[in-house]
Amino acid sequence: MKGMMEILGERRLDALQVHDFEAVQRYFISLKLTTETINKYFAVIGQALRFGVPRGFGTLEIVARYGAVRSLRVGQGEGAEREPVVSVDSTRLNAVLSYLESTEQGERGATLARMIRLQISSGLRPGEVCALRWDWIHTDLETWRCIVPDRVNKTAHRGKRRVVLFGPNSRAILLGQQGQGNNSGVVFLFDYERKAGKRELTRDVYARWIREACDTVGVPRWHPHQLRHNRATAVREAYSSAAAAAAAIGTTLDVAAEIYCDHSELAARKIAEEMG
Questions:
Q1: From CA 181, how far away is CA 97, in angstroms rounded?
Q2: Residue 181's pLDDT is what?
Q3: What does DSSP say about strands 137-138 and 162-166: parallel, antiparallel, or unpaired?
Q4: Same domain for 159 and 58?
Q5: In this structure, are 201 and 111 located in the same domain?
Q6: Distance (Å, rounded) from C-alpha 224 to C-alpha 220?
Q7: Which of 20, 35, 67 is the last residue of a domain?
Q8: Which end of the chain has less Cβ packing within 10 Å, N or C?
Q9: Cα first-last separation, the chain
């Protein structure tokens, strides 16, 4: 809210007009931030306004004035834009997987490869696959359901429950991992950083190990976050539908706004069974 206060000073909230919110947006643009960052900062103002209405601070009319200001599109800001996240091409991906699954890399390499393959087949985020626990996974239906707890769910603050569906490929990966760890309940465990006993990976270590594997086999580095894009791209191409891709990886796009309603979950189950 700092940017808003610098522009608007101590003016009454109910006096703010659309052009005032536009001025705040222009202020963020002048800071030469990325378009994504500007939109995030501007969204915080909207969250604060909506939070205040039922508590007697501001009105729905103020929220509507704020909402009249459109989010920026890429290129409308003055700062350098981040490179878009893209899928990992098959050459780089297969080179790393072949290396990790080689006999020389042992169980550590094999387990890391399973994590990568599970991300591709299910759409799990890097932090989710690192923290994945057996008690998150419900196997009562043919299509296994993974209920991601709010502490790991990046969209929990939006009131979105995160459910990941495991089809046959994902289930085979998980079944191959059973019995590989200790009694902690964590699915993927490793010996690392000179600490006794097996431990779950952090996202940073997971990404670092993949970078090191890329360097070893001589391919450009890639990040595990890109694997969700591999999943989304494959589903979109198979079903000719951006909505199907959004449903398959549980994004917060408008087309997946109803992801946890019955009809969306049925569609996601079909995707998981045919491609997971």
A1: 21
A2: 58
A3: unpaired
A4: no
A5: yes
A6: 13
A7: 67
A8: N
A9: 43
* pLDDT of 157 strictly over 50: yes
Same domain, 101 and 164: yes
Strands laid side by side in the 137-138 sheet: 137-138, 144-148, 162-166
Q: What CATH number does residue 138 fall under?
A: 1.10.443.10
Query: Is 0.70 surpassed by the pTM of this model?
Result: no
36-66: pLDDT as tens digits: 888 888 888 888 899 988 888 888 999 999 9
Query: What are the φ/ψ torsions at residue 162 (nearest 5 degrees)?
Result: -105, 115
Which residues span the domain enclosing 60? 2-67
Q: Is residue 238 part of a domain?
A: yes
Residue 231 in this model has a pLDDT that exceeds 90: no
Query: Is the same domain home to 170 and 35?
Result: no
Mean pLDDT, residues 193-212:
84
Are the beta carbons of 134 and 187 closer than 8 angstroms? yes
Residues 164, 44 share a domain: no
Structurally, how many domains does the chain consist of? 2
Q: Is there a domain that residue 205 lies in? A: yes
pLDDT tens digit sequence for 32-42 = 888 888 888 88
Same domain for 96 and 57: no
C-alpha–C-alpha distance, residues 61 and 166, integer Å: 44
- Amino acid 214 reads C
Nearest to 115 by CA among 95, 130, 104: 130
In the chain, % of residues over pLDDT 70: 79
For the stretch 91-108, what's the b/e string if a residue is b when 16 or more beta carbons lie within 10 angstroms of its beta carbon? ebbebbbebbeeeebeee
Higher pLDDT, 197 or 270: 270
Find the angle CA(90)-CA(92)-CA(95) to the nearest 5 degrees: 100
Task: Output phi, psi for 122, to 5 deg.
Answer: -120, -25
d(CA 163, CA 218): 36
CA–CA separation, 35 vs 53, rounded Å?
A: 28
